[in-house]
Design brief:
This protein is of the alpha+beta class and 209 residues long. The protein is built from seven helices and seven strands; from the N terminus they run H-E-E-H-E-H-E-E-H-E-H-H-H-E. It has a five-stranded antiparallel sheet with strand order 6-3-5-4-7. A two-stranded antiparallel sheet has the order 1-2. It binds zinc ion.
Length: 209
């Protein structure tokens, strides 16, 4: 089966009456969705998060995921620091559960806060890693969706739809104040311009048909 990028090399909505306009940037566009994912991954890194949290054993329905993530975040806030955060959800490899990667600006959390957050939210584990470089964010967040153009077209479309369903039809969820512009000033996601055209994603493994 041909790959998504071979079947759909460019945004269909961008070519109107034969003239090339700006890509539509809509999440229901299979060409623009992975592009937006790369931009958002870059913006996640540009916001200089201090920590990456991995939240495991999440359910597969967005409303339940949202409730549990809200409880995790509430517990972090109660621990005393003002945190801003952004997260996205991915299905586990075995398809039976999901996990979230959350990028957080704020001090490192104590082991008891992490345990408390996992217990209250009824998730598996809340694990923290200190982020030392911006690039770290890019490798994790949105990798699945960012590399979808390299998948066979049917698989790519199913993966995109699955991702959006798991994330409540959004690429990422962020608290007020998370996004920063290049100068470190507060921004919003739509306005964040990520320098460098492309963010490298791990290459998808080619499957033998
Ligand atoms: Zn488009």
């Amino acid at each position: 089966m041909p790959l998504l990028r071979e079947v759909l090399p460019e945004c269909r909505r961008a070519r109107i009456k034969g003239e090339l306009q700006d890509p539509c940037a809509a999440l229901d566009c299979p060409v623009c969705l992975p592009r937006e994912a790369r931009r958002v991954a870059g913006a996640l890194g540009m916001a200089m998060p201090d920590l990456m949290l991995t939240i495991t054993s999440l359910p597969l329905q967005w409303p339940l995921i949202r409730d549990r993530m809200n409880k995790v975040i509430e517990t972090l806030r109660r621990s005393g620091s003002a945190y801003v955060w952004a997260y996205s959800v991915e299905r586990n490899g075995d398809g039976r559960a999901a996990h979230a990667h959350a990028f957080v600006r704020g001090p490192r959390l104590s082991a008891s806060t992490l345990q408390d957050a996992a217990g209250r939210a009824q998730v598996g584990r809340v694990h923290q890693e200190t982020m030392y470089t911006r690039g770290q964010a890019l490798g994790y967040a949105l990798k699945e969706i960012g590399r979808s153009p390299d998948l066979p077209v049917g698989e790519a479309l199913a993966q995109q739809a699955g991702y959006l369903e798991l994330n409540g039809q959004r690429l990422v969820h962020a608290s007020h104040g998370y996004w920063l512009g290049p100068g470190g000033d507060r921004s919003n996601l739509r306005r964040v311009k990520v320098p460098g055209a492309r963010v490298p994603f791990p290459k998808a493994r080619r499957r033998v048909a």
